[in-house]
């Protein structure tokens, strides 16, 4: 009787372990793969999007990306480029590449949000630093001059989802520029969570309305996103 019960227990445990292992393989491996290896790509080819006419050329594409905001060493070959893309010696972030695709397609200017404080070079270090920023509500100082927003009537804002939220750097940017009266579009890059309600939060922080539909970019798809971004641009024009 006891032996029968133990056998049943063992079978249940094995089934649970098998289900968990299958879940990790199906859902976990793509995440790990993307966040702990680099993706080699050809930047010029990746951003070669067809032209889309938005009826204006006064367009600013603003992006925030991990690349360029981390304490990377000067020697890029020594950098752990996990979660980043690489074209030869150049590292490229997901939102950076998507911003280049948009600019290539619709024209206008491009602006990178940069923080004075740099994040740790390791992916997990940045995840930890961002978590502290959110829990402490850190106000981030930005590096360099802000763009002259008055020159533009259309603004694209691209950001990676961080802890289901808009990164503090992007919150800081929208609080310092006047986006009222502009047509504002958003692209959110993520590792599986979608935009997670962050666009509505960004609207509230910036005190503006963001046009629909916004675009959600799964990080695994960034290098090959030119067609889907092109479709989105055609849909919003
Ligand atoms: C600090 C940090 C927090 C993140 N939090 C989330 C998250 O909550 N949900 C998610 O799907 N992806 C999350 N990610 C993954 C990024 O959103 C995703 O990899 C994005 O494409 C990175 O874009 P980038 O290369 O332009 O920085 C996080 C990444 C970092 C660095």
Structural commentary:
- The chain has 237 residues and is α/β, with parallel strands linked by helices.
- The chain folds into two domains: 1-36; 38-236, Rossmann fold (3-Layer(aba) Sandwich).
- Helix content is 40%, strand content 15%.
- Strands 5-2-6-7-8 form a five-stranded parallel sheet, covered by helices on one side.
- Strand 7, helix 6 and strand 8 (215-218) form a beta-alpha-beta unit.
- The longest helix is centred in the N-terminal third of the chain and has 35 residues, at 2-36.
- The termini are far apart.
- 32% of the residues are buried.
- The mean pLDDT is 90.
- Bound molecules: flavin mononucleotide.
- Flavin mononucleotide binds at residues 65-66, 83, 93-95, 126-127, 130, 160-164, 189-193, 219.
| Proportion in β-strands | 15-25%
Radius of gyration of CA atoms, rounded to a whole number? 21 Å
* Quaternary organisation of the protein chains: single chain
Question: For the report, how would you describe the main beta sheet?
Answer: 5 strands, parallel
**Contiguous helical run count:** 7
Report the order of strands and helices.
HEHEEEHEHEHEHEH
**CATH homology group of the largest domain:** Flavodoxin domain
**What is the class of the largest domain in the CATH system?**
Alpha Beta
Distance between the termini: 72 Å
Ligands in the model, by name, code or SMILES, are: flavin mononucleotide
Number of beta-strand segments: 8
* Helical residues, percent: 40-55%
CATH architecture of the largest domain: 3-Layer(aba) Sandwich
| CATH level-3 fold name of the largest domain | Rossmann fold
Shape: elongated
Strand order of the largest sheet: 5-2-6-7-8
Mean pLDDT: 90
In total, the number of domains comes to 2
Poorly predicted runs of 5 or more residues: none
Coarse structural class: alpha/beta
